[in-house]
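Objective 1b. Sequence-to-structure analysis of Helix-turn-helix transcriptional regulator.
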Amino acid sequence: MTATITAGAMLKGWRTRRRRSQMDLALEANVSTRHLSFVETGKAQASRALLLDLATRLDVPLRERNALLLAAGYAPSYAESALEDLTGVQEALQHLLAGHEPYPALVVDRRGDVVLANRAVRLLLAGVDDTWLTPPLNIYRLALHPEVLDVRNRDEWSAHLLHRLDRLVDLTGDPRLVALRSEVGPWVGDGRTVRVHDRAAQLMLPLHLGHPDHGDLRFFSTITHFGAAFDVTLDELSIESFVPADEHTRRVLTQPTVVPSSMPMP
């Protein structure tokens, strides 16, 4: 039989994960340390309002806030919609992706699965075997596996992605992310084989790709999140955009024949 995790234990877990003391959190939430201790041990039942307030102060993601409320016997507070049901959001995302062309941009969920992409993303996937292009595409699997993308600065880029994935695991505690981290870890070792002196000489770390037709391509990337999201799906989406890091890459991307007319994925 599987033991049920109580709301108090979950709350204590999040407080510990965020490295907050009971006294510090209680003072901030304007409750007594004794009451917070009783909530965590199950000797007292926290109100719905208190749980949401504590979860906000601990920066608990929306999906996990719902789980906390359910464990306490309350209904979830945040909806989880399918992207296709968020009509205005999906249209806005598609507009942003199209507006970024001829440069690549994609929308990924919390696990790194691609949910939308513009046409220029196909350029990044040139030469990738079709067996890796079956949805859902996962940016961590694609970039970290040594036999998929020709990443020329693999040590540095792998270290960057592993740090990003580790941070997400720490932030969310999502077991699916923990499993993904365990899956990709053996492909790249501990991710610490980074040439620090090279990184210090750069403004930011580029993605350096080898392309079968256009040689070396270099990109800078940016990640954008929705602000003040109140839907679990929307809260977990991010837009990853790539821009040329050198003149050669810019010239390649702005050639009219480079960006294909077909979409590489949904």
